[in-house]
Amino acid sequence: MAGRTLLQRTVGRALLQALKARNAAEITTTGKAAPAVCSEMAAMWNLPRHHSSASAATVAVDEQEAPTVMMKGVKMPGRPLYLDMQATSPVDPRVLDAMLPYFTDQYGNPHSRTHIYGWESEDAVERARGQIANLIGANAKEIIFTSGATEANNIAIKGVAHFYKDKKKHVITTQTEHKCVLDSCRHLQQEGFDVTYLPVKTDGLIDLEELKATIRPDTALVSVMYVNNEIGVIQPIKEIGEICRQHKVFFHTDAAQAAGKIPINVDDLKIDLMSLSGHKLYGPKGIGAIYMRRRPRVRVEAQMSGGGQERGIRSGTVATPLAVGMGAACEIAMQEMANDEKHILELHKRFLEGVTSQVQGLVINGSTEHRYAGNLNISFAYVEGESLLMGLKEVAVSSGSACTSASLEPSYVLRALGVEEDMAHTSIRFGFGRFTTKEEVDRATKLTVDQVQKLRQMSPLWEMVQEGIDLKSIQWSQH
Amino acid sequence: MAAVAPSPVEAKALFKAFLREARKFPNYNIREYVKRRAKEGFRECQSIKDPAAAAAAFAKGKEQLERPHHDSFFLLMGSSSEDLVLFQCNKLNVQGGSVSA
Protein backbone atom coordinates (compact mmCIF):
# COMPACT_ATOMS: atom_id res chain seq x y z
CA MET A 1 0.00 0.00 0.00
CA ALA A 2 2.70 2.39 -1.00
CA GLY A 3 0.23 4.85 -2.46
CA ARG A 4 -1.71 5.35 0.74
CA THR A 5 -1.07 8.73 2.22
CA LEU A 6 -0.75 9.64 5.86
CA LEU A 7 -4.05 11.50 5.65
CA GLN A 8 -5.84 8.44 4.38
CA ARG A 9 -4.40 6.36 7.17
CA THR A 10 -5.48 8.83 9.82
CA VAL A 11 -8.97 9.17 8.40
CA GLY A 12 -9.16 5.43 8.08
CA ARG A 13 -8.18 4.88 11.68
CA ALA A 14 -10.75 7.39 12.86
CA LEU A 15 -13.36 5.58 10.81
CA LEU A 16 -12.40 2.27 12.33
CA GLN A 17 -12.82 3.75 15.79
CA ALA A 18 -16.21 5.10 14.84
CA LEU A 19 -17.24 1.78 13.39
CA LYS A 20 -16.12 -0.01 16.51
CA ALA A 21 -18.14 2.33 18.67
CA ARG A 22 -21.15 1.75 16.48
CA ASN A 23 -20.61 -1.94 16.39
CA ALA A 24 -20.62 -2.20 20.15
CA ALA A 25 -24.17 -0.99 19.92
CA GLU A 26 -25.00 -3.31 17.08
CA ILE A 27 -24.64 -6.59 18.95
CA THR A 28 -27.66 -6.52 21.13
CA THR A 29 -28.00 -10.20 21.88
CA THR A 30 -25.94 -9.72 25.02
CA GLY A 31 -28.84 -7.79 26.45
CA LYS A 32 -26.98 -4.52 26.75
CA ALA A 33 -29.06 -1.47 25.98
CA ALA A 34 -27.85 0.12 22.81
CA PRO A 35 -28.50 3.55 21.37
CA ALA A 36 -31.54 3.79 19.17
CA VAL A 37 -29.75 5.76 16.49
CA CYS A 38 -27.15 3.06 16.24
CA SER A 39 -29.59 0.23 15.87
CA GLU A 40 -31.42 2.14 13.16
CA MET A 41 -28.07 2.34 11.46
CA ALA A 42 -27.46 -1.30 12.19
CA ALA A 43 -30.58 -2.16 10.26
CA MET A 44 -28.85 -0.86 7.20
CA TRP A 45 -25.32 -1.78 8.00
CA ASN A 46 -24.79 -3.47 4.67
CA LEU A 47 -24.80 -0.08 3.03
CA PRO A 48 -21.55 1.85 2.69
CA ARG A 49 -20.96 2.86 6.23
CA HIS A 50 -18.33 5.54 6.23
CA HIS A 51 -20.73 8.29 5.24
CA SER A 52 -22.55 8.79 8.49
CA SER A 53 -21.07 6.37 10.97
CA ALA A 54 -18.75 8.91 12.55
CA SER A 55 -21.59 11.28 13.38
CA ALA A 56 -23.80 8.40 14.52
CA ALA A 57 -21.14 7.30 16.95
CA THR A 58 -20.81 10.74 18.49
CA VAL A 59 -24.55 11.36 18.71
CA ALA A 60 -25.22 8.01 20.26
CA VAL A 61 -22.90 7.99 23.22
CA ASP A 62 -25.28 9.10 25.93
CA GLU A 63 -28.55 7.68 24.71
CA GLN A 64 -29.63 4.60 26.63
CA GLU A 65 -32.98 3.75 25.06
CA ALA A 66 -34.05 0.19 24.37
CA PRO A 67 -32.80 -0.82 20.94
CA THR A 68 -35.28 -1.57 18.20
CA VAL A 69 -35.12 -2.45 14.57
CA MET A 70 -38.32 -1.85 12.69
CA MET A 71 -38.88 -3.32 9.26
CA LYS A 72 -42.03 -4.38 7.40
CA GLY A 73 -44.05 -3.84 10.55
CA VAL A 74 -41.90 -6.25 12.55
CA LYS A 75 -40.23 -4.78 15.60
CA MET A 76 -37.11 -6.49 16.83
CA PRO A 77 -34.68 -5.71 19.63
CA GLY A 78 -31.81 -5.89 17.13
CA ARG A 79 -30.73 -7.60 13.97
CA PRO A 80 -31.73 -11.26 14.16
CA LEU A 81 -29.10 -13.99 14.26
CA TYR A 82 -28.62 -15.44 10.84
CA LEU A 83 -29.34 -19.15 10.53
CA ASP A 84 -30.45 -19.27 6.91
CA MET A 85 -27.22 -20.31 5.21
CA GLN A 86 -29.07 -22.29 2.52
CA ALA A 87 -30.73 -19.13 1.25
CA THR A 88 -27.45 -17.30 1.02
CA SER A 89 -24.20 -16.96 2.94
CA PRO A 90 -22.31 -13.83 3.98
CA VAL A 91 -19.35 -12.81 1.85
CA ASP A 92 -16.02 -13.85 3.33
CA PRO A 93 -13.79 -10.78 3.91
CA ARG A 94 -11.01 -12.49 1.95
CA VAL A 95 -13.40 -12.75 -1.00
CA LEU A 96 -14.33 -9.09 -0.77
CA ASP A 97 -10.67 -8.25 -0.65
CA ALA A 98 -9.99 -10.13 -3.86
CA MET A 99 -12.92 -8.45 -5.58
CA LEU A 100 -12.36 -4.81 -4.68
CA PRO A 101 -9.60 -3.94 -7.15
CA TYR A 102 -11.87 -5.09 -9.97
CA PHE A 103 -14.57 -2.69 -8.82
CA THR A 104 -12.21 0.27 -8.78
CA ASP A 105 -9.04 0.47 -10.85
CA GLN A 106 -9.14 -2.73 -12.85
CA TYR A 107 -12.48 -2.22 -14.53
CA GLY A 108 -11.57 -3.49 -17.98
CA ASN A 109 -13.84 -5.70 -20.03
CA PRO A 110 -12.29 -9.17 -19.90
CA HIS A 111 -13.15 -9.63 -23.57
CA SER A 112 -11.27 -6.51 -24.71
CA ARG A 113 -8.25 -7.71 -26.62
CA THR A 114 -6.57 -4.43 -27.46
CA HIS A 115 -5.42 -2.94 -24.14
CA ILE A 116 -4.04 -3.67 -20.71
CA TYR A 117 -7.41 -3.04 -19.00
CA GLY A 118 -8.87 -5.95 -20.89
CA TRP A 119 -5.84 -8.18 -20.45
CA GLU A 120 -5.67 -7.83 -16.69
CA SER A 121 -9.39 -8.52 -16.35
CA GLU A 122 -9.07 -11.52 -18.62
CA ASP A 123 -6.19 -12.84 -16.51
CA ALA A 124 -8.27 -12.43 -13.37
CA VAL A 125 -11.27 -14.22 -14.89
CA GLU A 126 -9.10 -17.08 -16.10
CA ARG A 127 -7.46 -17.39 -12.70
CA ALA A 128 -10.91 -17.58 -11.11
CA ARG A 129 -11.94 -20.22 -13.64
CA GLY A 130 -8.93 -22.27 -12.57
CA GLN A 131 -9.79 -21.89 -8.88
CA ILE A 132 -13.34 -23.11 -9.48
CA ALA A 133 -12.11 -26.03 -11.59
CA ASN A 134 -9.67 -26.95 -8.82
CA LEU A 135 -12.41 -27.20 -6.24
CA ILE A 136 -14.30 -29.84 -8.23
CA GLY A 137 -11.36 -31.63 -9.84
CA ALA A 138 -12.10 -30.33 -13.34
CA ASN A 139 -10.18 -28.60 -16.10
CA ALA A 140 -10.49 -24.81 -16.30
CA LYS A 141 -11.73 -25.15 -19.90
CA GLU A 142 -14.77 -27.03 -18.63
CA ILE A 143 -16.05 -24.11 -16.53
CA ILE A 144 -18.52 -21.60 -18.00
CA PHE A 145 -19.51 -18.55 -15.99
CA THR A 146 -23.23 -17.86 -15.64
CA SER A 147 -25.33 -15.50 -13.56
CA GLY A 148 -26.01 -18.18 -10.97
CA ALA A 149 -27.05 -21.77 -10.46
CA THR A 150 -30.52 -21.11 -11.88
CA GLU A 151 -29.06 -20.12 -15.22
CA ALA A 152 -26.63 -23.04 -15.07
CA ASN A 153 -29.52 -25.45 -14.47
CA ASN A 154 -31.44 -23.93 -17.37
CA ILE A 155 -28.47 -24.30 -19.72
CA ALA A 156 -27.88 -27.88 -18.60
CA ILE A 157 -31.44 -29.12 -18.90
CA LYS A 158 -32.85 -27.16 -21.81
CA GLY A 159 -29.48 -26.94 -23.53
CA VAL A 160 -28.81 -30.69 -23.58
CA ALA A 161 -32.41 -31.59 -24.41
CA HIS A 162 -32.52 -29.13 -27.31
CA PHE A 163 -29.14 -30.14 -28.71
CA TYR A 164 -29.94 -33.86 -28.82
CA LYS A 165 -33.65 -33.45 -29.60
CA ASP A 166 -33.51 -35.32 -32.90
CA LYS A 167 -32.61 -38.62 -31.26
CA LYS A 168 -33.46 -38.18 -27.59
CA LYS A 169 -36.79 -37.09 -26.20
CA HIS A 170 -36.68 -38.10 -22.54
CA VAL A 171 -35.37 -36.42 -19.39
CA ILE A 172 -35.29 -37.87 -15.87
CA THR A 173 -35.28 -35.77 -12.72
CA THR A 174 -36.60 -36.07 -9.17
CA GLN A 175 -39.60 -34.60 -7.37
CA THR A 176 -37.44 -32.81 -4.80
CA GLU A 177 -35.35 -30.73 -7.21
CA HIS A 178 -35.05 -26.98 -7.02
CA LYS A 179 -37.83 -25.02 -8.71
CA CYS A 180 -35.61 -23.94 -11.59
CA VAL A 181 -34.95 -27.55 -12.56
CA LEU A 182 -38.60 -28.52 -12.27
CA ASP A 183 -39.67 -25.46 -14.22
CA SER A 184 -37.14 -26.11 -16.99
CA CYS A 185 -38.50 -29.63 -17.22
CA ARG A 186 -42.08 -28.36 -17.42
CA HIS A 187 -40.95 -26.10 -20.26
CA LEU A 188 -39.51 -29.12 -22.06
CA GLN A 189 -42.78 -31.01 -21.59
CA GLN A 190 -44.61 -28.18 -23.30
CA GLU A 191 -42.24 -28.56 -26.22
CA GLY A 192 -43.10 -32.23 -26.49
CA PHE A 193 -40.36 -33.85 -24.42
CA ASP A 194 -41.12 -36.66 -22.04
CA VAL A 195 -40.06 -36.02 -18.44
CA THR A 196 -40.01 -38.54 -15.58
CA TYR A 197 -40.12 -37.09 -12.07
CA LEU A 198 -38.66 -39.81 -9.87
CA PRO A 199 -40.28 -40.09 -6.45
CA VAL A 200 -38.08 -40.16 -3.35
CA LYS A 201 -38.18 -42.48 -0.36
CA THR A 202 -39.21 -41.19 3.07
CA ASP A 203 -35.58 -40.31 3.79
CA GLY A 204 -35.46 -38.06 0.72
CA LEU A 205 -33.15 -40.27 -1.33
CA ILE A 206 -34.01 -41.74 -4.70
CA ASP A 207 -34.28 -45.46 -5.37
CA LEU A 208 -31.40 -46.48 -7.67
CA GLU A 209 -33.27 -49.51 -9.01
CA GLU A 210 -36.15 -47.27 -9.98
CA LEU A 211 -33.74 -44.95 -11.76
CA LYS A 212 -32.27 -47.87 -13.71
CA ALA A 213 -35.74 -49.01 -14.70
CA THR A 214 -36.73 -45.53 -15.85
CA ILE A 215 -33.80 -45.01 -18.24
CA ARG A 216 -34.91 -45.51 -21.84
CA PRO A 217 -32.92 -45.68 -25.08
CA ASP A 218 -34.06 -42.13 -25.86
CA THR A 219 -33.14 -40.67 -22.46
CA ALA A 220 -30.94 -37.64 -22.97
CA LEU A 221 -30.30 -36.51 -19.42
CA VAL A 222 -30.62 -37.45 -15.77
CA SER A 223 -30.66 -34.50 -13.38
CA VAL A 224 -30.40 -35.16 -9.64
CA MET A 225 -29.36 -32.52 -7.16
CA TYR A 226 -26.36 -33.18 -4.94
CA VAL A 227 -27.42 -31.67 -1.61
CA ASN A 228 -31.07 -30.77 -1.25
CA ASN A 229 -31.64 -27.11 -0.48
CA GLU A 230 -34.58 -27.68 1.82
CA ILE A 231 -33.77 -30.84 3.73
CA GLY A 232 -30.01 -31.17 3.21
CA VAL A 233 -29.93 -34.82 2.18
CA ILE A 234 -27.02 -35.97 0.03
CA GLN A 235 -28.10 -38.11 -2.92
CA PRO A 236 -25.98 -41.15 -3.87
CA ILE A 237 -24.27 -39.21 -6.66
CA LYS A 238 -21.46 -41.71 -7.27
CA GLU A 239 -23.89 -44.57 -7.85
CA ILE A 240 -26.12 -42.41 -10.05
CA GLY A 241 -23.07 -41.33 -12.07
CA GLU A 242 -22.11 -44.96 -12.54
CA ILE A 243 -25.59 -45.93 -13.75
CA CYS A 244 -25.74 -43.01 -16.18
CA ARG A 245 -22.30 -43.77 -17.62
CA GLN A 246 -23.26 -47.44 -18.12
CA HIS A 247 -26.41 -46.44 -19.99
CA LYS A 248 -24.62 -43.67 -21.92
CA VAL A 249 -26.91 -40.97 -20.55
CA PHE A 250 -25.63 -37.54 -19.57
CA PHE A 251 -25.70 -36.85 -15.84
CA HIS A 252 -26.33 -33.37 -14.50
CA THR A 253 -26.22 -32.46 -10.84
CA ASP A 254 -27.18 -29.20 -9.16
CA ALA A 255 -24.35 -28.79 -6.65
CA ALA A 256 -25.18 -25.26 -5.53
CA GLN A 257 -25.58 -26.41 -1.92
CA ALA A 258 -22.76 -28.94 -2.07
CA ALA A 259 -19.78 -27.22 -3.67
CA GLY A 260 -17.28 -25.96 -1.16
CA LYS A 261 -19.05 -27.80 1.64
CA ILE A 262 -18.31 -31.43 0.83
CA PRO A 263 -15.46 -32.82 -1.32
CA ILE A 264 -16.44 -33.19 -4.98
CA ASN A 265 -14.49 -34.71 -7.83
CA VAL A 266 -16.34 -34.75 -11.14
CA ASP A 267 -14.20 -37.58 -12.53
CA ASP A 268 -14.68 -39.89 -9.56
CA LEU A 269 -18.38 -39.19 -9.47
CA LYS A 270 -18.77 -39.41 -13.29
CA ILE A 271 -20.64 -36.11 -13.45
CA ASP A 272 -21.13 -34.66 -16.95
CA LEU A 273 -22.70 -31.32 -16.06
CA MET A 274 -22.77 -29.52 -12.75
CA SER A 275 -24.30 -26.23 -11.59
CA LEU A 276 -22.51 -24.05 -9.08
CA SER A 277 -23.46 -20.86 -7.29
CA GLY A 278 -21.20 -18.16 -5.88
CA HIS A 279 -23.29 -16.89 -3.01
CA LYS A 280 -23.82 -20.25 -1.37
CA LEU A 281 -20.13 -20.64 -0.64
CA TYR A 282 -19.37 -17.24 0.89
CA GLY A 283 -18.93 -15.59 -2.50
CA PRO A 284 -20.89 -12.78 -4.13
CA LYS A 285 -24.44 -13.03 -5.49
CA GLY A 286 -25.03 -12.74 -9.20
CA ILE A 287 -22.44 -15.24 -10.33
CA GLY A 288 -22.46 -18.97 -10.84
CA ALA A 289 -20.88 -21.50 -13.12
CA ILE A 290 -21.66 -24.60 -15.06
CA TYR A 291 -19.21 -27.43 -15.42
CA MET A 292 -19.44 -29.16 -18.81
CA ARG A 293 -17.39 -32.28 -19.44
CA ARG A 294 -15.08 -32.21 -22.46
CA ARG A 295 -14.23 -35.91 -22.64
CA PRO A 296 -16.65 -37.45 -23.48
CA ARG A 297 -17.92 -34.18 -24.75
CA VAL A 298 -21.26 -32.78 -23.67
CA ARG A 299 -22.83 -30.30 -26.05
CA VAL A 300 -25.59 -27.86 -25.30
CA GLU A 301 -27.64 -25.33 -27.20
CA ALA A 302 -26.97 -21.81 -25.98
CA GLN A 303 -29.83 -20.10 -24.15
CA MET A 304 -28.69 -16.58 -24.95
CA SER A 305 -27.69 -15.06 -28.27
CA GLY A 306 -24.94 -12.49 -28.36
CA GLY A 307 -21.25 -11.88 -28.66
CA GLY A 308 -20.25 -15.50 -28.24
CA GLN A 309 -18.44 -15.13 -24.92
CA GLU A 310 -17.79 -18.23 -22.81
CA ARG A 311 -17.30 -20.33 -25.95
CA GLY A 312 -20.68 -19.26 -27.27
CA ILE A 313 -22.54 -21.02 -24.48
CA ARG A 314 -23.22 -17.93 -22.42
CA SER A 315 -22.98 -14.70 -24.33
CA GLY A 316 -22.64 -11.49 -22.38
CA THR A 317 -19.70 -9.85 -20.66
CA VAL A 318 -18.42 -11.86 -17.72
CA ALA A 319 -18.72 -9.85 -14.50
CA THR A 320 -15.04 -9.69 -13.61
CA PRO A 321 -15.33 -8.71 -9.91
CA LEU A 322 -17.99 -11.34 -9.28
CA ALA A 323 -16.06 -14.05 -11.14
CA VAL A 324 -12.93 -13.14 -9.16
CA GLY A 325 -14.98 -13.30 -5.96
CA MET A 326 -16.37 -16.70 -6.80
CA GLY A 327 -12.88 -17.97 -7.64
CA ALA A 328 -11.49 -16.69 -4.35
CA ALA A 329 -14.44 -18.20 -2.49
CA CYS A 330 -13.74 -21.58 -4.10
CA GLU A 331 -10.07 -21.44 -3.19
CA ILE A 332 -10.85 -20.51 0.41
CA ALA A 333 -13.55 -23.20 0.58
CA MET A 334 -11.00 -25.76 -0.52
CA GLN A 335 -8.45 -24.70 2.09
CA GLU A 336 -11.01 -24.38 4.87
CA MET A 337 -13.23 -27.35 4.04
CA ALA A 338 -12.02 -29.67 6.80
CA ASN A 339 -12.12 -26.90 9.37
CA ASP A 340 -15.57 -25.70 8.30
CA GLU A 341 -16.93 -29.24 8.31
CA LYS A 342 -15.71 -29.82 11.85
CA HIS A 343 -17.14 -26.54 13.10
CA ILE A 344 -20.50 -26.99 11.38
CA LEU A 345 -20.89 -30.56 12.64
CA GLU A 346 -20.20 -29.34 16.16
CA LEU A 347 -22.89 -26.65 15.83
CA HIS A 348 -25.31 -29.16 14.33
CA LYS A 349 -24.86 -31.53 17.28
CA ARG A 350 -25.04 -28.71 19.80
CA PHE A 351 -28.31 -27.41 18.41
CA LEU A 352 -29.90 -30.82 18.01
CA GLU A 353 -28.95 -31.94 21.51
CA GLY A 354 -30.11 -28.65 22.98
CA VAL A 355 -33.51 -28.84 21.31
CA THR A 356 -34.20 -32.57 21.62
CA SER A 357 -33.30 -32.58 25.30
CA GLN A 358 -35.99 -30.00 26.03
CA VAL A 359 -38.69 -30.53 23.42
CA GLN A 360 -40.34 -33.80 22.48
CA GLY A 361 -42.29 -34.56 19.37
CA LEU A 362 -39.88 -33.20 16.80
CA VAL A 363 -38.94 -34.91 13.59
CA ILE A 364 -35.86 -34.33 11.45
CA ASN A 365 -36.99 -34.28 7.83
CA GLY A 366 -34.85 -36.36 5.51
CA SER A 367 -32.13 -38.91 6.10
CA THR A 368 -30.06 -38.29 9.23
CA GLU A 369 -27.20 -40.38 7.89
CA HIS A 370 -26.78 -39.03 4.34
CA ARG A 371 -26.95 -35.42 5.25
CA TYR A 372 -25.00 -32.19 5.09
CA ALA A 373 -24.60 -31.08 8.70
CA GLY A 374 -25.15 -27.39 7.91
CA ASN A 375 -28.80 -28.00 7.08
CA LEU A 376 -31.21 -29.11 9.74
CA ASN A 377 -34.88 -29.26 8.73
CA ILE A 378 -37.07 -29.98 11.73
CA SER A 379 -40.84 -30.33 12.09
CA PHE A 380 -42.33 -29.56 15.49
CA ALA A 381 -45.52 -31.52 16.13
CA TYR A 382 -48.63 -29.74 17.47
CA VAL A 383 -47.28 -26.30 16.70
CA GLU A 384 -48.56 -23.97 14.03
CA GLY A 385 -45.70 -23.24 11.65
CA GLU A 386 -46.46 -19.62 10.83
CA SER A 387 -46.89 -18.76 14.51
CA LEU A 388 -43.58 -20.42 15.26
CA LEU A 389 -41.82 -18.47 12.50
CA MET A 390 -43.36 -15.23 13.68
CA GLY A 391 -42.37 -16.02 17.25
CA LEU A 392 -38.84 -16.71 16.12
CA LYS A 393 -38.36 -13.33 14.54
CA GLU A 394 -35.09 -12.89 16.43
CA VAL A 395 -33.69 -15.81 14.47
CA ALA A 396 -33.45 -15.50 10.70
CA VAL A 397 -34.67 -18.91 9.56
CA SER A 398 -37.15 -20.03 6.95
CA SER A 399 -39.68 -22.76 6.55
CA GLY A 400 -38.11 -24.05 3.39
CA SER A 401 -36.53 -22.61 0.30
CA ALA A 402 -36.40 -18.83 -0.02
CA CYS A 403 -38.16 -19.06 -3.38
CA THR A 404 -41.32 -20.55 -1.92
CA SER A 405 -41.22 -19.05 1.56
CA ALA A 406 -43.70 -16.37 0.55
CA SER A 407 -46.49 -18.89 0.06
CA LEU A 408 -48.35 -20.60 2.84
CA GLU A 409 -48.45 -23.88 0.94
CA PRO A 410 -46.50 -26.66 2.60
CA SER A 411 -43.23 -27.43 0.88
CA TYR A 412 -43.46 -29.73 -2.15
CA VAL A 413 -40.18 -31.31 -1.08
CA LEU A 414 -41.62 -32.41 2.25
CA ARG A 415 -44.79 -33.63 0.55
CA ALA A 416 -42.64 -35.71 -1.81
CA LEU A 417 -41.07 -37.31 1.26
CA GLY A 418 -44.54 -38.28 2.41
CA VAL A 419 -44.49 -35.93 5.39
CA GLU A 420 -48.05 -35.37 6.58
CA GLU A 421 -49.59 -32.01 5.94
CA ASP A 422 -49.63 -30.86 9.57
CA MET A 423 -45.97 -31.75 10.02
CA ALA A 424 -45.01 -30.20 6.67
CA HIS A 425 -46.61 -26.97 7.85
CA THR A 426 -44.47 -26.79 10.98
CA SER A 427 -41.07 -27.37 9.40
CA ILE A 428 -38.22 -24.97 9.99
CA ARG A 429 -34.86 -25.07 8.27
CA PHE A 430 -31.89 -24.12 10.43
CA GLY A 431 -28.68 -23.46 8.51
CA PHE A 432 -25.23 -23.26 10.03
CA GLY A 433 -22.10 -22.00 8.32
CA ARG A 434 -18.52 -20.88 8.61
CA PHE A 435 -19.42 -17.68 10.45
CA THR A 436 -22.07 -19.06 12.80
CA THR A 437 -20.95 -18.97 16.43
CA LYS A 438 -21.74 -21.26 19.35
CA GLU A 439 -23.33 -18.34 21.17
CA GLU A 440 -25.74 -17.82 18.26
CA VAL A 441 -26.65 -21.50 18.25
CA ASP A 442 -27.25 -21.47 22.02
CA ARG A 443 -29.43 -18.41 21.72
CA ALA A 444 -31.38 -19.93 18.81
CA THR A 445 -31.86 -23.13 20.82
CA LYS A 446 -33.28 -21.22 23.76
CA LEU A 447 -35.59 -19.09 21.61
CA THR A 448 -36.86 -22.14 19.69
CA VAL A 449 -37.49 -24.17 22.82
CA ASP A 450 -39.25 -21.28 24.57
CA GLN A 451 -41.43 -20.55 21.57
CA VAL A 452 -42.41 -24.17 20.95
CA GLN A 453 -43.30 -24.63 24.60
CA LYS A 454 -45.28 -21.40 24.66
CA LEU A 455 -47.27 -22.34 21.55
CA ARG A 456 -47.93 -25.84 22.84
CA GLN A 457 -49.26 -24.48 26.12
CA MET A 458 -51.86 -22.61 24.09
CA SER A 459 -52.65 -25.56 21.84
CA PRO A 460 -55.74 -27.65 22.57
CA LEU A 461 -54.26 -30.39 20.39
CA TRP A 462 -51.19 -30.64 22.59
CA GLU A 463 -53.44 -30.84 25.65
CA MET A 464 -55.33 -33.72 24.10
CA VAL A 465 -52.11 -35.51 23.25
CA GLN A 466 -50.97 -35.11 26.86
CA GLU A 467 -54.25 -36.67 27.96
CA GLY A 468 -53.49 -39.66 25.79
CA ILE A 469 -56.02 -39.01 23.02
CA ASP A 470 -54.99 -40.25 19.59
CA LEU A 471 -55.58 -37.25 17.34
CA LYS A 472 -55.95 -39.43 14.26
CA SER A 473 -58.98 -41.17 15.77
CA ILE A 474 -60.90 -37.93 16.17
CA GLN A 475 -63.76 -37.32 13.76
CA TRP A 476 -63.80 -33.57 13.26
CA SER A 477 -67.28 -32.30 12.50
CA GLN A 478 -67.66 -29.69 9.83
CA HIS A 479 -69.57 -26.48 10.34
CA MET B 1 19.56 -22.89 3.83
CA ALA B 2 17.78 -24.87 6.51
CA ALA B 3 14.61 -23.19 7.73
CA VAL B 4 14.70 -22.09 11.35
CA ALA B 5 11.66 -22.88 13.45
CA PRO B 6 10.11 -19.85 15.16
CA SER B 7 10.76 -19.48 18.86
CA PRO B 8 7.80 -19.84 21.25
CA VAL B 9 7.95 -16.08 21.85
CA GLU B 10 7.71 -15.35 18.12
CA ALA B 11 4.82 -17.76 17.70
CA LYS B 12 3.00 -16.24 20.65
CA ALA B 13 3.52 -12.74 19.25
CA LEU B 14 2.05 -13.82 15.92
CA PHE B 15 -0.94 -15.37 17.65
CA LYS B 16 -1.54 -12.19 19.63
CA ALA B 17 -1.26 -10.15 16.45
CA PHE B 18 -4.02 -12.30 14.94
CA LEU B 19 -6.29 -11.66 17.90
CA ARG B 20 -5.53 -7.94 17.65
CA GLU B 21 -6.44 -7.97 13.95
CA ALA B 22 -9.62 -9.91 14.73
CA ARG B 23 -10.80 -7.17 17.08
CA LYS B 24 -10.66 -4.68 14.23
CA PHE B 25 -13.48 -6.34 12.30
CA PRO B 26 -16.72 -4.44 12.89
CA ASN B 27 -18.89 -7.45 12.04
CA TYR B 28 -19.52 -9.76 14.99
CA ASN B 29 -19.57 -13.01 13.01
CA ILE B 30 -16.38 -12.28 11.12
CA ARG B 31 -14.59 -11.09 14.25
CA GLU B 32 -15.49 -14.28 16.08
CA TYR B 33 -14.50 -16.38 13.07
CA VAL B 34 -11.05 -14.83 12.85
CA LYS B 35 -10.53 -15.42 16.58
CA ARG B 36 -11.73 -19.00 16.43
CA ARG B 37 -9.75 -19.81 13.31
CA ALA B 38 -6.58 -18.30 14.78
CA LYS B 39 -6.96 -20.34 17.95
CA GLU B 40 -7.60 -23.54 16.01
CA GLY B 41 -4.77 -22.90 13.59
CA PHE B 42 -2.23 -22.27 16.32
CA ARG B 43 -3.43 -25.28 18.31
CA GLU B 44 -2.98 -27.48 15.24
CA CYS B 45 0.52 -26.15 14.69
CA GLN B 46 1.59 -26.69 18.29
CA SER B 47 2.28 -30.34 17.62
CA ILE B 48 4.57 -29.69 14.63
CA LYS B 49 8.01 -31.06 15.48
CA ASP B 50 9.81 -30.67 12.16
CA PRO B 51 11.60 -27.25 12.09
CA ALA B 52 11.04 -26.81 8.34
CA ALA B 53 7.31 -27.49 8.64
CA ALA B 54 7.08 -25.17 11.64
CA ALA B 55 8.87 -22.42 9.71
CA ALA B 56 6.51 -22.92 6.76
CA ALA B 57 3.46 -22.74 9.01
CA PHE B 58 4.83 -19.59 10.63
CA ALA B 59 5.48 -17.97 7.25
CA LYS B 60 1.96 -18.89 6.11
CA GLY B 61 0.51 -17.34 9.23
CA LYS B 62 2.47 -14.16 8.70
CA GLU B 63 1.33 -13.96 5.08
CA GLN B 64 -2.31 -14.39 6.13
CA LEU B 65 -1.93 -11.65 8.71
CA GLU B 66 -0.39 -9.22 6.31
CA ARG B 67 -3.23 -9.46 3.83
CA PRO B 68 -5.13 -6.28 4.56
CA HIS B 69 -8.62 -7.77 4.84
CA HIS B 70 -10.06 -5.18 7.13
CA ASP B 71 -8.46 -2.44 5.07
CA SER B 72 -10.79 -3.20 2.18
CA PHE B 73 -12.59 0.09 2.34
CA PHE B 74 -9.35 2.08 2.23
CA LEU B 75 -9.18 1.01 -1.37
CA LEU B 76 -12.53 2.62 -2.02
CA MET B 77 -11.50 5.84 -0.36
CA GLY B 78 -9.01 6.49 -3.06
CA SER B 79 -6.33 4.37 -4.56
CA SER B 80 -3.19 5.60 -6.18
CA SER B 81 -3.65 6.95 -9.66
CA GLU B 82 -0.07 8.09 -10.01
CA ASP B 83 0.82 5.29 -12.39
CA LEU B 84 -1.65 6.52 -15.00
CA VAL B 85 0.04 7.26 -18.31
CA LEU B 86 -1.74 10.60 -18.28
CA PHE B 87 0.33 11.78 -15.34
CA GLN B 88 3.53 10.25 -16.62
CA CYS B 89 3.09 12.07 -19.94
CA ASN B 90 2.27 15.36 -18.26
CA LYS B 91 5.41 15.06 -16.17
CA LEU B 92 7.49 14.35 -19.25
CA ASN B 93 5.97 17.24 -21.12
CA VAL B 94 6.54 19.66 -18.29
CA GLN B 95 10.09 18.51 -17.77
CA GLY B 96 10.90 18.59 -21.47
CA GLY B 97 9.30 22.03 -21.78
CA SER B 98 7.49 21.03 -24.92
CA VAL B 99 3.76 20.53 -24.90
CA SER B 100 2.55 19.26 -28.22
CA ALA B 101 -0.34 21.27 -29.59
UniProtKB/TrEMBL annotation, chain A:
<keyword id="KW-0408">Iron</keyword>
<feature type="domain" description="Aminotransferase class V">
    <location>
        <begin position="82"/>
        <end position="443"/>
    </location>
</feature>
<dbReference type="GO" id="GO:0046872">
    <property type="term" value="F:metal ion binding"/>
</dbReference>
<dbReference type="InterPro" id="IPR015422">
    <property type="entry name" value="PyrdxlP-dep_Trfase_small"/>
</dbReference>
<dbReference type="GO" id="GO:0051536">
    <property type="term" value="F:iron-sulfur cluster binding"/>
</dbReference>
<keyword id="KW-0479">Metal-binding</keyword>
<keyword id="KW-0663">Pyridoxal phosphate</keyword>
<keyword id="KW-0411">Iron-sulfur</keyword>
<dbReference type="GO" id="GO:1990221">
    <property type="term" value="C:L-cysteine desulfurase complex"/>
</dbReference>
<dbReference type="GO" id="GO:0031071">
    <property type="term" value="F:cysteine desulfurase activity"/>
</dbReference>
<comment type="similarity">
    <text>Belongs to the class-V pyridoxal-phosphate-dependent aminotransferase family. NifS/IscS subfamily.</text>
</comment>
<dbReference type="InterPro" id="IPR010240">
    <property type="entry name" value="Cys_deSase_IscS"/>
</dbReference>
<dbReference type="GO" id="GO:0016226">
    <property type="term" value="P:iron-sulfur cluster assembly"/>
</dbReference>
<dbReference type="InterPro" id="IPR000192">
    <property type="entry name" value="Aminotrans_V_dom"/>
</dbReference>
<dbReference type="InterPro" id="IPR015424">
    <property type="entry name" value="PyrdxlP-dep_Trfase"/>
</dbReference>
<dbReference type="Pfam" id="PF00266">
    <property type="entry name" value="Aminotran_5"/>
</dbReference>
<keyword id="KW-0808">Transferase</keyword>
<dbReference type="InterPro" id="IPR020578">
    <property type="entry name" value="Aminotrans_V_PyrdxlP_BS"/>
</dbReference>
<protein>
    <recommendedName>
        <fullName>cysteine desulfurase</fullName>
        <ecNumber>2.8.1.7</ecNumber>
    </recommendedName>
</protein>
<dbReference type="InterPro" id="IPR015421">
    <property type="entry name" value="PyrdxlP-dep_Trfase_major"/>
</dbReference>
From TrEMBL, chain B:
<dbReference type="Pfam" id="PF05347">
    <property type="entry name" value="Complex1_LYR"/>
</dbReference>
<feature type="domain" description="Complex 1 LYR protein">
    <location>
        <begin position="10"/>
        <end position="66"/>
    </location>
</feature>
<protein>
    <recommendedName>
        <fullName>Complex 1 LYR protein domain-containing protein</fullName>
    </recommendedName>
</protein>
<dbReference type="InterPro" id="IPR008011">
    <property type="entry name" value="Complex1_LYR_dom"/>
</dbReference>
<dbReference type="InterPro" id="IPR045297">
    <property type="entry name" value="Complex1_LYR_LYRM4"/>
</dbReference>
